[in-house]
Amino acid sequence: EHFHTGQPTQQSAHTAAGSCNPQWRGLHAKPWPCRPRPPSAACTATRSRLLPRPRRSGEPRRCSSSPRPWRCPAPCCTEPSCRMRLRRCRSCGIAGPRGSGARHELRLWSPRPRRTATSTTFPPTICEYLKLEQVLQAASMDNKTIILTTLNAAWSSPGSVIDLFIDSFRHGVRTSSLLKHLVIIAFDRKAYRRCTEIHTYCYALVTGNVDFSQEKRFLTAGYLEMMWKRLDFLRLVLEKGYSFIFSDADIMWFRNPFPYFYPDGDLQVACDHYVGNATDLRNIANGGFNYVKSNNQSIEFYKFWYSSRLRYPGYHDQDVLNFIKHDPYIMDIGLTIKFLSTTYFGGICEPSKDLNEVCTMHANCCIGLQSKLHDLRIIMEDWRDYMSMPPSLKTSGAFSWRVPQNCSLSLLNQ
């Protein structure tokens, strides 16, 4: 050991020159800064190759360890805010965001927005059309036909309308297989989360700053805006080349409806009141259930239908449909409209009398969620009782619906 005596020893002088080994310093010496030897020329050249190049003038700052951003190939994502970091699916090569658990989850995440209690944008995506195309493709039939319904938080609670809707498919005649072609369009975050818990194909329709989560009373401003938003979305589906059956979630499915559609109808719509002829314009159309083929005529009609809201302010899409069905423009574009008989596609307004032929049962002419739920549960109980009957009693036609109870038929006469 070398003790400090006021003069540095040979070893301590060597340490001060650059070895920086504390064992050569005296026990009572004051610490001096470590001065390592300068690197060699070879080490300097190696380090210069590893350092990132200097940032050019006007170039944005970026972390050298982060991967290069990708751009979404969808036409809706041409803005700089649509840049994202993606990973590619091993099976198909489609790019998706890093950290995403789903195989084809193609959501484009913008810079994280400030979350507020009233925020209704969900999920925080910019590019939604690419994901919509994949959902439609996965759920479509061989002829590019899908089944669509819409959902908001008010109808998504356990035991509420959406559960009854899906349950009717499972208890219907040859309808359970149709669930794999059903896409649920969610209007809000809670509805989307609930949909992913109970169904395979869900799509979050971003609604901006409009809150569609609460129950929308008939003909209120929120109800009208939700109906028109839905109609514009259906036009988009047609433009993508998909035909569809649109069904409100308060319609119970008891039989496969495809055998009851007309082969020559571009737009086939259910009725609140059916006069007995499928082409008679006196039929009162109900926009809650319709079958639409994707072609130039139907696409042009949906554009015309949506734009007609400006001609008839304060009316919802169903009323406007009953107005414009007489318009000469329908004949000009060559659209063929067929009205579906209430014998097969009935509702509380005009119930199907024969349960041996009924396809769907709609809780129309009914205002208020609780009234609707009550009568829908009665409808499902009646159907289960009918299905448990022996064939001889089924064919007798003695069984009938016990509705309406809490719903009102007087709406049709207003």
TrEMBL record:
Residues 1-22 have a biased composition (Polar residues). Keywords: Cell wall biogenesis/degradation, Glycosyltransferase, Golgi apparatus, Signal-anchor, Transferase, Transmembrane. Its main location: Golgi. This is Glycosyltransferase. It is an enzyme of class 2 (transferase). It holds the Pfam family Nucleotid_trans. Transmembrane segments: none annotated. Residues 1-70 are annotated as: Disordered. Belongs to the glycosyltransferase 77 family. Its EC number is 2.4.2.-. It is a single-pass type II membrane protein. GO terms for cellular component: Golgi membrane. InterPro entries: At1g28695/At4g15970-like, Nucl-diP-sugar_transferase, Nucleotide-diphossugar_trans. GO terms for molecular function: glycosyltransferase activity. Residues 178-376 form the Nucleotide-diphospho-sugar transferase domain. SUPFAM superfamilies: Nucleotide-diphospho-sugar transferases. The keyword Cytoplasm does not apply. It is found in: Golgi apparatus membrane. One of its GO terms (biological process) is cell wall organization. It comes from Aegilops tauschii subsp. strangulata.
